């Protein structure tokens, strides 16, 4: 009897794997709900619809994009984490929901424990821009100018706790400089005051900055990332400019509720990566300056953990904490 019981117990994991594989073979049999934690019409929404159109074709099912804005992504994250873990509810997690917000706020969800990582979509760098009239033309000149004028300059952000603030705080930390933070309700009004001279610098995402750079109303000095961008070939990275390890991305990825069946996760990841590796996908995402970054679920899960840890450490060191 003991031997038979042990045999049965040993068979349980195998049966679970077999059941998971069977579900994956049948998946998907109905449309997939794809939650986007921002309102329709913005860059994140564009990325979602561009990817989901191809992804649905690859899976042989429709993806229904559901824009669920509110609470800085909290509503979308809560909805996703509480959904059945069957692969039919996914969310476009991004640097705010799974990076900067957990670092600066007490949230009602765990960015790691409450989700299953599916895969990375891609990211766009942040670019350091200054008012066109500021008498600096490169990163070294800007750092020197800040040191010669302590407390006299201000930088705008899309809001307290946003990536645009945290990247500048990282810059201040690494360069030993000071520039006053001026938070705005979104990136558009922050740009208005930057171009008007009320503030002197900012670290926006590349897609938001490009129109103003091309108009000549702001000057780009350096960009995050490990490589220069094709759209700004003459602008060096912060790393090559001497700030070792300085990197930050406005990234987008896909997560589902915790404890999704591994076989379904693998199927979703493989089809997503196939879509991202298509020859024309890079050009399709170029309007938002997003570079595809396909990853395995494990790689993406580790990426999220690293993002939460690095921004949490910075927020703690700089005293940045918001109420929920």
Give the N-terminus to C-terminus distance in angstroms.
56 Å
Mean pLDDT reading = 93
Number of strands: 11
Question: Rounded to an integer, what's the Rg over CA atoms?
Answer: 22 Å
- CATH domain fold name of the largest domain: D-Maltodextrin-Binding Protein, domain 2
The portion of residues assigned to helices is 40-55%
Order of strands across the main sheet: 2-1-3-10-4-11
Number of helices, counting only DSSP H or I runs of 4 residues or more: 11
Most strands sheet: 6 strands, mixed
Question: Structural class of the helix and strand makeup?
Answer: alpha/beta
Mind sketching the topology for me?
Layout: H1 2-26, E1 32-36, H2 43-59, E2 63-67, H3 74-81, E3 89-94, H4 96-104, E4 115-125, E5 127-131, H5 139-148, E6 154-157, H6 163-175, E7 180-183, H7 187-196, E8 201-202, H8 206-215, E9 218-223, E10 249-257, H9 262-276, H10 281-285, E11 291-292, H11 297-318
Parallel strand pairs: 1-2, 1-3, 6-7
Antiparallel strand pairs: 3-10, 4-10, 4-11, 5-8, 5-9
Describe this entry's structure for a reader.
This protein has 324 residues and is of the alpha/beta class. The protein folds into two domains: 9-123 and 252-318, 3-Layer(aba) Sandwich (D-Maltodextrin-Binding Protein, domain 2); 127-232, Periplasmic binding protein-like II (D-Maltodextrin-Binding Protein, domain 2), CATH 3.40.190.10. The protein is built from eleven helices and eleven strands. The protein is globular. The termini are far apart. The model is unreliable at 1-11 and 14-18 (pLDDT under 50).
